[in-house]
Amino acid sequence: MKVYFVGAGPGAADLITLRGARLLGQVRMVLYAGSLVPTALLEHCHPAAEIIDTAALDLEQQQACYVRAQEQGIDVVRLHSGDPAIYGATAEQMRRLDALGIAYEVVPGVSSFTAAAAAVSAELTKPEVSQSVILTRVSGRASAVPESESIASLAAHRATMCIFLSGPHLKKIVTDLLLHYPPATPVTLVYRATWPEQRIYQGQLDKVLEENKRGEWNLTTMMLVGAALNKEQVAESSLYSKDFTHLFRVVKKNKDAA
User: Fold this and answer.
1) What is its EC number (predicted)?
2) The domain over range 3-107 is classified in CATH as 3.40.50.150
3) How far is CA 87 from CA 112, 136, 153, 161, in A?
């Protein structure tokens, strides 16, 4: 018996990995977070699978499902939104599985931050502009963010930032970002990237609050911010330059220039 923590991807049913979809079609028990994972993903499940929405279940109740599957000798898929490694609340489940002697495996998925970038055809890193991406969120009731990782502290790097669950906190986030980012820094908001109800806003940091009504963006909104989002910012890597030599491409020197 084995538990597979599968990344469901950002929402679209065809953005789950081939491995994840194959496992859904094989196992006889599927636990999924109904508040975050669209039911369209369940079309990959085996027709005889028991499908359990964990939105209303606490950790002990979820553990009871694993114990029952262990007693029945059946494999389980625990379907998490995005990628299980990012805000997946998987570590506490794994500790309990370790105590129960139940084997598990993690199958990665497409994260909402890359889906949000794809929605606006953005590259999050550009040479000489930003080569770092910061993934973060603001404190919530379920889990607090360490003070050393506050938006205001991280903004000092001026790297590309991807701020999860940003919708209800736009005023504070924008205020903190403006402590370090220039007012004209590009900002993108993506609500439920790849879902049918996906919504997008693109603007600049000092205009976000005046161009969006309070409460207009819900919890599952991704904010992207940083100079790399500026498509007019021209910066090209040397990797594909005709004059750049590397292990797989040798530039032939011009004999006349020698």
Assistant:
1) 2.1.1.133
2) no
3) 11, 9, 20, 16
